[in-house]
Write a structure and sequence with these properties.
This protein is α+β, with helices and mostly antiparallel strands and about 170 residues long. The chain has helices at about 20-25, 45-55, 110-125, 140-145, 165-170, and strands at about 5, 10-15, 65-70, 75-90, 90-100, 130-135, 150-155, 160-165. The radius of gyration is 15 Å and the shape is globular.
């Protein structure tokens, strides 16, 4: 089981006992407003998606790294962060994303968690390029990507795409 600790957070693999947390996060309309296709509408849908995330932990090679985030001091659940890997032209990419419960947004938790995962992504999990995107109206996510050293590489009509390459990270 993967567990990463930061000064304020515990970032860990999801567990079956996290079902209520998963449902609270992924059924929240405010959280899912930019990615409605990921929203869970029923407890059963949440259970199925969580189980898929848990099953992915055992895959070899592992391609899905999604983690629950908790406050270190209280163990209170606050959100999800993670990535999926994809091999493109022989290079391993990590497509990053995060969601925080509304009451925990704006405190720097996502940036702290993302920054803690970057070294592991590059050094332990073999990722060469971290890719992330957001709706152009999602300024908070854009700020997180910028704070973690990512650079804007493409702008679509309503989306922004940021990247961080391992060689650029090594030079930060």
């Amino acid at each position: 089981m993967i567990e990463v600790k930061t000064p304020r957070l515990i970032i860990r693999d999801w567990q079956p006992s996290d079902h209520a947390h998963w449902h609270r996060l992924f059924s929240n309309t405010q959280n899912m407003r930019f990615v409605e296709h990921l929203q869970c509408h029923t407890l059963e849908e949440s259970r199925k998606h969580l189980q898929g995330t848990i099953d992915a932990i055992q895959e070899s090679p592992r391609i899905k790294y999604f983690f629950a985030m908790q406050l270190r001091d209280t163990s209170e659940f606050i959100g999800n962060i993670g990535f999926m890997t994809e091999l493109k032209a022989g290079v391993l990419w990590g497509n990053m994303g995060w969601f925080l419960l509304p009451e925990h947004q704006g405190y720097g938790y996502a940036a702290e968690a993302f920054a803690a995962l970057i070294p592991r992504m590059f050094e332990e999990w073999g990722v060469a390029v971290i890719d992330a995107g957001c709706n152009i109206a999602n300024k908070a996510s854009e700020c997180i990507m910028q704070a973690c050293g990512m650079k804007l590489v493409q702008q679509y009509d309503d989306r922004l795409n940021y990247q961080l390459k391992k060689e650029d990270w090594l030079n930060l």
